[in-house]
Amino acid sequence: MLHAMSGSKQIAITLPKRATTLAAARTGAMTLDVQLGQEVGYNFRGAPRDSHSDRTRVMYMTDGLLVAQARKDPNFKNYAAVLVDEAHERGVPTDFLLMALKNALDKNVKLKIVVMSATIDPGEFLAYFGPERTRVVNVDGAQMFNVAVKFNPIKFKSSNDLLEKALVISNQALKEASDGSNAILFVPTTRDAVNGCRIESVNRQVCKSLYGKMDKLEQDEILQFKDETLKTLYVATNVAESSLTLPRLDFVVDTGLQVEVKWDPKIRCTEIKQNMATRAQIMQRIGRVGRVRPGYAILLYSEKTFKELPQYPPPALLNIDLSEHILSEAASLNFASIKINLSRLLTPPSSSQVDGAFRSLFLCGLLTDSKVSELGTLVLKAVERFRLSLWNALVVCAGYDMNHDAGDLAAILEAYGSAELFLDMPGFDYKKYYVQGSDHATLLRIFRELAEPLCGSRNSLLDQVTGVVFAAREYLQIIRSDERVHTSLYSMKPCDIAPLFPGAAARPPGKVKVGVYEQMILRTSGKLEAALLTWR
C-alpha cells in the first residue's frame, strides 16, 4: 500500500545500526522479489555505490543518515513516507529524527510517518506528535511457535568465568538437539563475542561472532551462512537483539548483561559499565526464536531478577556528550536556536549536558562568542570526511604541533578501538606487542609494527584501520600548508582532553590503568594540556 502511495517519491525505512539496515534491506528485496539495489535499496555511511539506484523507491537507511539529509531538506520533500523502526532503542539519531519529522508535518501535510517497535510505550509518542493526528495500531506480536523459557541462574566470579559457564550451557543445549540446530548466546562485550568463538574453535564447535563493528564481508558471511547438517553457535552482543535475521535459531541463551556507556557532563568523562539489560531488551532477545519452529530460551539469572528490571531503557540522549551535535548545528544556527531545538526533543537533555558541551567547545577554541571558529570548521570537515568523532578530529587537526602518535592513535581508536580484536589474525601474539601499563601504547605498537606494513594485503581489518589513519595524515598535511589554519591553531586555548578518546572511561578508585605515555603524547608545547586518561 505504501509503495503504491509513493508515486515518484521514496519511502524511507530507518534503523539504528548499519548491520541491521543491510539485513532488513535484503529481507525487503527478497520479500518483494526484486534485486537489492534496484527498487529496494539501502544507504548509510560507507555503503557501496550499487546499494541503491535511480529506480529505488523503498530505501532502508540508518536514522543518522536521514537526520543529515534533513538539514538540507527539512520538509522531507523527497519522501512520501518515513518508517522509523526499532524506535524503542531511543538512540540519539532516532530522537533527532523524530523531532525533524514532527517539525516537517506542519509544512508537508502529505508526509506519512510510522513509528514502529515490538516493545514500545506508545503513550509518550502519542503525546509528542499529538493525539489529534496520531493513532496507535497494535499488531499481534505473538510468536508463530511456542518458546519454552527456563530461568537458570548461575554464580560466577568474573566475566571470563561467566563466559565459560554460558558456553557450557549453550553447548549442552546443542548437544541434546537434532542436527542442524542453532543457538545464540548473548554476551555483553565485543571481547566476549570474539573470545567465545575462539574457545569454541578449540572444542571444534561451529561458532560465529556477531558484534557492532564487524566489517561487511564478515557480516555477509555470517548472515548468509547455511548448512542444515551442522550445529552452529552464534555468540553475539546486543547488535543481534532485533532486525538481524539468523537462520533457524532453536535456542537463546542469555547472560542478561550489556555494556552501558554514560557521559558525565560534570567531569567531562565517559563512564563505561556493565549492567543488566531491561525487560524490553530481554524480550527482544527471547524473540529471536519461535519464528519458524518451537524454541527454547535459557536465562542465566532468576525470575525475581528479571521482574525487578526496568521495563524500558532510558533514552540514549540523556547519556551522551552533545558537543559534536552543537558544533554541527552552530554552522547554520545561532546558539539560542540550538538550545530551543534541544528543548523540543521527545526527551530533552539536561541543562548540565547542554551547558557543559558549550563550555568545552569554547575552551577548545571550536566556538567563538557567536559562531564556529576556523578551527571548528576544520574539525567539522574532518568529522564528515573521515567519519571521526569530534574529539578525535580535534586531535588530528591539532596534530601538526603534536607528537604524531596522538593523531595516529585518535584515528586508530575511531576505526577499531580494541587491540583484542586483532587476536583473530593468524599468528598474532598479543604478548609480543604488549606495553606494560598502557593500552594506548599497545594498540599503537600493533598498528606500527603489524597493521601498517601489511596495508593492502586484503585483510579487511587491517585495511579499515590503515585507511582511516592514512586519510587523517593526508588531511593533516593540508592543514599544515594553510597559513590561516596555522595561526588559528596557535591561538587555541587550553582544554581538557579527557573526552578525546571514545575508549576513555571513568572507573572506581584503585581500578584505573593510567600510563605516563598517555600524558606524554598529548602534550603540545602548551597548546593543549594533557589530562590523565583512563582506559577500560
Overview of this protein structure:
The chain has 536 residues and is of the alpha/beta class. It folds into three domains: 2-129, 3-Layer(aba) Sandwich (Rossmann fold), CATH 3.40.50; 147-313, Rossmann fold, CATH 3.40.50; 373-517, no CATH class. Helices cover 41% and strands 13% of the residues. It has 21 helices and 13 strands. The protein has helices at residues 2-6, 18-31, 63-72, 92-105, 122-129, 159-175, 190-202, 216-223, 279-286, 303-308, 323-330, 335-343, 351-363, 374-386, 390-397, 404-415, 430-433, 439-451, 460-480, 483-490, 516-521, and strands at residues 10-15, 40-43, 58-62, 79-84, 112-115, 147-151, 182-186, 206-210, 232-236, 249-254, 257-264, 269-276, 295-299. A six-stranded parallel beta sheet has the order 6-13-10-7-9-8, with helices on both faces. Strands 2-3-1-4-5 form a five-stranded parallel beta sheet, with helices on both faces. The longest helix has 21 residues, at 460-480. The protein is globular and about 65 Å long. The model is unreliable at 482-536 (pLDDT under 50). It holds the Pfam family Helicase_C. Residues 161-346 form the Helicase C-terminal domain. Keywords: ATP-binding, Helicase, Hydrolase, Nucleotide-binding. Residues 1-138 form the Helicase ATP-binding domain.
